[in-house]
Sequence to fold (680 residues):
Amino acid sequence: MTTYDKADYKESFVVKGKLALPYQYFAGRTGSKFLIALRDKKKILGVRCNTCKKVFVPPRQTCEKCFEDLSENWVELSDKGVVTDFTVVRYAEPHQPVKPPYILAMIKLDGADTPFAHIVRGVAPSKMKEGLKVQAQFAKKTTSTIMDIECFRPASGQFELGYSYDELEIGMSASFTKTITETDVYLFAGISGDFNPMHLNEEFAKKTPFGTRIAHGALPQSLIASVLGMKLPGLGTVALEINTRFLGPTYFGDTVTASAEVIEKLEKKRWVRLELRWINQHGKLIGIGDALVIPPAPAG
Amino acid sequence: MSRRVGICAVAQSTYEREKWYERFQGMCLEILEPLLEQTGLDFAEDTGINMTVSVSDDVFDARTISDNGMTDVLGGHLRCEEKIAQEGIQAVYYGLAAILSGHQDVVLIIGHCKESQGESRNQATHLAFDPFYTRPVGLDFLAAAGLQARAYQKAKGLTDDQMAQVVVRCREKAAKNPLTQDLAPITAQDVKNSPLLADPIRQLHTYPISDGSVGMILASEERAKKICKNPIWITGVGNCMDSFFMGDRDIASNFALKKAAQKAYKRAGIDNPNGAFDVIEVSDQYAYQQPMWMEGLGLADSGPDWLDRGGPDKDRVNLSGGMLAGNPLLLGGLVRAAEAATQLMGQAGERQVDGAKRALAHGVMGPAGQFHSVLILERD
Fold:
């Protein structure tokens, strides 16, 4: 095989160049109608083939299978849809519309049969899933292209569900901490109707074993609700039982941490038992208990 | 087929990361000279080569009518020349058609591409998309492949380990192919540690940027038998172009490849492709494509676990190292055809399969496998 010595080529050079041609692309009547509706009315249109019943986006004049003329078969589509496929683009090129990493997805709009490619923002790549419901965010500045939709974002009214039964493991834990103020106690008295003077009347409270007003027991206890319902297992959880044993009082100004830890998985019912603990700012255990919950069913 | 058409000679350059020492013309001369030498042919209209089909691409060459400054080397000067810019293996189809038509008897095919001269091949493939709907969202072939790889993973369960396995084996095979780039051997862990480019595609899952050229001589049966002792017969050919918009297709389904393969098998008289080939060369531009294309060819029906069952070695797939060992995108299928023919000629050196009689070569172009070609070659 021939070998080449760079020294023999030292009088050779390369010329820097570029293949570029300013150009006007005609969008056609069908494409123009789609792009004008998108630009001026923020409406996304598709075309329906009455033979195969498919609704196509982007639009085209003729059905590729039935050869039906689709140019008058316009249908208005939702600005919401679902992600059918996606990738995370992590390499950089000048032709990309946003800085990588970004999610490039195939999005099937409600009412359409063919998905089309666009950018999804507002979701961490590690949390991205096929089946995510997304909604178009229209661009402020028009380019008369599909980028008059700036991107898609998770559709409003969507929540990320908590851990499912299979995702939960024994030993997983979560907590919530809050300072209990006089205001909290007065509001809680109003909410519960418990106007017991040991919570509201300092002179009376001086005569109790605590020597001062204390919070209702159910007030620090209720902090566990946010742990179970919003953290562990999280959204979608149904609480079946919460048992509490009070070990000490909560004074006004105390900071209480309510925590839960998964201790048992009930395979048959697919329920989970958690151990509960309440600790104040001095590290004193003021309550213990347990809870039985139904974790959320997995999404999708 | 009414008239048999044979491959009489094949020539390939080395494939390198950068052929800094050569222009396109020089790269083609490197192919033309050995082809003329092997066959003893010249360009006499009645006794020599009648027609040339060149393969090159205006964008990768950054000049339009990319063949026209080099027709002297292509054998097209002052005579008949045609150009293929889609996928190199199409030139074989073109040459076959010209000979079957009876208009030509001897066809020269030469393809070249120098990917190193462009700033980025992603920028080149980005231009394959339309200006209204798909270019503005930044699509290029790599991003499209990411979408397809994930869709295939979801449908068939292809794993990161299996993709790593494809790359490791390709490098082992490439080490036995003197034409490939100098690619260091790697471990599966190296592959899995390489950065993600378009999930789940990693850097080491992608074919290396490469420069190279390849060619062959086709002739009608009568002429072929006079030119060489054992022509390699083209017994089956099929191709299929899927929809342009990816959303119109099922990108995990191999629709176009299945159709292309069915046509080629039918023409070659093959009822069951399993076990029908001594050598198989598929265009695996990305690691996920090797099992996926094999499934599409009907040669790995169970999907990616074909890899775990030692399928690539059992079926003698990409003994050359395949696309992952590096040849230009544009020439992928033509290089596969050249490799398959070289095997059937018994000239594949260390990678030779003893007594190989029938081979399959596959080419693919367009985003996420839009267009597939299947070519079946046999020797008497």
Notes: Chain A touches chain B at residues 1, 4, 6, 9, 17-19, 25, 27, 31, 35, 56-58, 64, 85-91, 93-98, 104, 106, 108, 114-119, 125, 130, 143, 145-147 (CB under 8 Å). The radius of gyration of chain A is 31 Å.
